[in-house]
Design a protein that fits this description.
The chain has one domain (2-23, 36-131). The chain contains five helices and no strands. The two termini are 42 Å apart. By secondary structure, it is mainly alpha-helical.
């Protein structure tokens, strides 16, 4: 039992060690090569665009819920029972999709909540390297 807990702890540490953005936030950008920093800036921008698209999709799905409620009411008034059921079943499906998307965002885009700080750290390091300064600890 203790061995499994130890293995999970090591796996968690390896996952944190593989997250370049987390490494920059905790240790700074000096350990990365210049081309890696440029790639990280590009990756940060691309992930930001992906996150914006995903949030836009989530907004549209969330916006569909009141319209589905209205459609269910309209179908009930028109006595179209099968459509009422479809509209009412679509609402929890939308909520399930929203919950899954939120879990995906929190798992895969956790560093983007600090994107402005990351960008600033990387850009300061690149500027320091352009001027040719040494790292002072």
């Amino acid at each position: 039992m203790g061995n499994r807990k130890f293995e999970r702890q090591i796996a968690r540490l390896e996952q944190a060690g593989n997250d370049d953005f987390l490494l920059i936030l905790t240790g700074g950008a000096a350990a990365f090569a210049t081309h890696e920093l440029h790639l990280l800036l590009r990756r940060l921008r691309i992930q930001g665009q992906q996150l914006r698209r995903l949030r836009d999709s989530m907004f549209r799905i969330g916006l569909a819920i009141p319209f589905l409620m209205f459609a269910a009411c309209a179908c009930a008034l028109a006595s179209w029972r099968p459509l009422v059921g479809i509209c009412l079943l679509a609402i929890p499906m939308c909520l399930l999709v929203l919950a899954i998307a939120q879990a995906y965002i929190s798992r895969h885009f956790s560093s983007l909540s600090r994107a402005k700080r990351l960008r600033c750290i990387i850009q300061q390091e690149l500027e320091r390297r352009r001027r040719g300064e040494e790292v002072k600890y």
